[in-house]
Amino acid sequence: MTVRTGAVDTHHHVWDLSVRDQDWITGPELAPLRRNFTVEDLEPEARAVGVTRTVLVQTVTVAEETPEFLALAEAHDLIAGVVGWTDLTSPDVADELARLKELPGGRYLKGIRHQVQGEPDPEWLLREDVRRGLAAVAEAGLVYDLVVLPTQLPACARAAELHPELTFVLDHLGKPPIAAGGFEPWVTGIRALAALPNTVCKLSGMVTEADPKGWKVGDLTRYSDTVLEAFGPGRLMFGSDWPVCTLVASYAEVADIAGRLTGKLGESEQGEIFADTATRVYGL
Questions:
Q1: 199 has which bridge partners?
Q2: Is the pLDDT assigned to residue 64 strictly greater than 90?
Q3: Which intervals hold domain Amidohydrolase-related (predicted)?
Q4: Phi, psi at residue 269, to the nearest 5°?
Q5: I need a labelling partner for 79 at 20 to 30 A (CA). Which of 8, 142, 247, 274 fits?
Q6: What are the helix and strand counts (H, E) for the chain?
Q7: Residues β-bridged to residue 81
Q8: What region does 84 belong to: left with phi over 0, alpha with psi -120 to 50, or beta?
C-alpha cells in the first residue's frame, strides 16, 4: 500500500556494527537487529510506499554519532532531517549545538534526543542542568524528541509548560502498554501533554509495544484513536521506527497499518499526519 506520495517518515534509525556496537541490542528477542542497517537498505522500502523524505533519529548516547548522521543526510536525498544527541547537562551545550550546525550536513540538524526512558529519575527532564540544555536547544532553533515511558509523561508535560519556546515531540506515543492492554496512567499523561500547544506526537512504535506473538491492528486502535483525539492531525506525524519495527512487521506493513488507523480521516487530515506536520515541525 502507498500511504501517500510524498510522505515523510519522521522516525527511523541506521547503524553499522563495524563502526560501533549498539549495546542495547541484547538477548534473543532483539537478535534479528544485530546486523547492519543502512540507508541503502531503507530507501527502496520507503519509496515503495510513497515515502520520499525521512528523519534519521539517534540510537546511542555517543557524541560521534550525530556528525555521522549529518554526513549521511548530506549524502542521501532521502534523509531530510536528523534528530541527534548531545549532552544536555554540559555547560557547553550551546557551543556544541552551534558546532554541529556548522559541520558538513549541519543544516539537516533539526532536533535533539536523549534516552530519557533509561533514566532512573522520573523527573530527569526537570533537573536544573537538563533545563538549561533544553533552553539551549530552543535557542538553537531545534526541537526536542521525547523517548519516555508512561510514568515519565507528567515530567514531559511540566517541561513543556516550563519551556513554551521549545517544541517537544513525543516518540512512539510514550510507549503505552499495548501488549498488556493497559490504559492508565498512560492516557492521563497523554491528555495532559497534548493540552500544551508546543507538543507533537509521532504515530510510531506501536507494533513493538503490542504482543509479539499474536497482535492485530485492532489492538492498536484504542491507542491511536486516543492520540488522534488528544493532539489532532495537525500535531501528529507518521514514523516507521525502522528497523526496530522489523522485529514484528515489515516497513510496508507498518505503513499499511498507519494508513488503516487513520483511514477514517479526510484527505487533508491524512496529509497533515503523513507530510505536513513533519514538514512544519522539523522545518524540512
A1: 168
A2: yes
A3: 8-284
A4: -70, -40
A5: 247
A6: 11, 8
A7: 55
A8: beta
* Contact assessment for residue 204 and residue 241, using Cβ atoms and an 8 Å cutoff: yes
The secondary structure of 256-277, three-state, reads HHHHHHCCCCCHHHHHHHHHHH
Reported for 210-217, long-range contacts at CB under 8 A and 24+ positions apart, including other chains, are 210/178, 210/179, 210/248, 211/178, 211/179, 212/29, 212/179, 212/247, 212/248, 215/178, 215/179, 215/248, 217/257, 217/260, 217/261
pLDDT, position 1: 58
Residue pair 117/147 in contact (Cβ under 8 Å)? The answer is: yes
Q: Which amino acid is at 61?
A: T
CA dihedral 277, 281, 283, 284 (to 10 degrees): -40
pLDDT tens string 92-102: 999 999 999 99
CA–CA distance from 9 to each of 6, 123, 153, 180 (Å)?
10, 30, 24, 27
Q: Using the 8-state DSSP alphabet, how is residue 120 labeled?
A: S
Edge to edge, the sheet with strand 51-57 lists 7-12, 51-57, 79-84, 109-114, 143-146, 168-170, 199-203, 236-238
- In the numeric block, which cell numbers belong to residue 158? 511540566
Residue type, 276: D
Place of cell 519509496: 47
Q: Nine-digit cell at 180?
A: 498488556
**CA 37 – CA 33 distance, rounded (Å):** 8
Question: Residue 12: exposed, middle, or buried by beta-carbon count in 10 A (0-12, 13-18, 19+)?
Answer: buried
Short-list 222, 283, 231, 218, CA closest to 257: 218
pLDDT in tens, 117-160: 999 999 999 999 999 999 999 999 999 999 999 999 999 999 99
Cell of 102: 556548522
